[in-house]
Amino acid sequence: MCGTDHSMFFENLIPSNAESLVLMMSRVSANSGVLVLCFELNLGLEVFSFCIVYNLCENRKSERRTRLVPMEQIDDARNRKNQIAALMRVFVLSKSFKEDNIPCKMEEGLFLGSLGAANNKFELKRLNVTHILTMACSLPPAHPDDFVYKVIPVMDRQDTDLRQYFDECFSFIDGAKEKGGGVLVHCFVGKSRNATIVIAYLMKKHGMSLSQAMEHVKSIRPRAGPNVGFMKQLQDFEKSLQDQNAANEEEDMKSYKSKGLALQSSTFAP
């Protein structure tokens, strides 16, 4: 190496907002000053690997351009094209996080947003957000000294059982509100996992139907939309709420009739 500090280069090049970015291998050629870093990148819905080849020497300016090379079948042009395209999508996503960094207010004390919003300490403080509910894997708290965090390690997959966490999430949200604070519910992109939790919460707390809760959330954050598997879980949740409400009404009716008979009996007692 030639003693140059390249930390800013790699910080800007490698997205820090992936669900997990694992350095699988690094190799430096002493003769040519070429650094090879091989990564495995997990985006939740997509996992792929890539290599970054970078010439570290200042005096080799003609060779300092960065090249992206796939780990498998490096000479395969089609595979290289696919891997580079995937990485470019990550860069675009990374840029969107910087732009999508304002929490969306669903109701008093409840906000929805992406990882960008979860990292926006200034805006979170301004909105009186005190608690952050993270619905994602491998996303450590960005500001652990400033907010109360709860992390639910789930993937945005159709076969993920998100419903098992509903009550746990509801309690966290209610706990923050009862203390006079606010909650940001976020995932990676701010579309599926967190939207599912907020929609379910509105259904449970306000008696909204699934369609009403969906319409409310999407009117504020249009990109919000649970995946197919989560939608099925929300439909099942709606049915369970309807069944519970029906059972409660039946129990109330029985109690009302019982009290009415008791009152009638006491009225006509000798």
Automatic annotation (TrEMBL):
It comes from the Eukaryota. PROSITE patterns: TYR_PHOSPHATASE_2 (PS50056), TYR_PHOSPHATASE_DUAL (PS50054). Residues 241-270 are annotated as: Disordered. Pfam families: DSPc (PF00782). InterPro entries: Dual-sp_phosphatase_cat-dom, Prot-tyrosine_phosphatase-like, Tyr_Pase_dom, TYR_PHOSPHATASE_DUAL_dom. One of its GO terms (biological process) is negative regulation of MAPK cascade. One of its GO terms (cellular component) is cytoplasm. It is found in: Cytoplasm; Nucleus. PANTHER family: DUAL SPECIFICITY PROTEIN PHOSPHATASE, DUAL SPECIFICITY PROTEIN PHOSPHATASE 1. This is Dual specificity protein phosphatase 1 isoform 1. It comes from Tripterygium wilfordii.
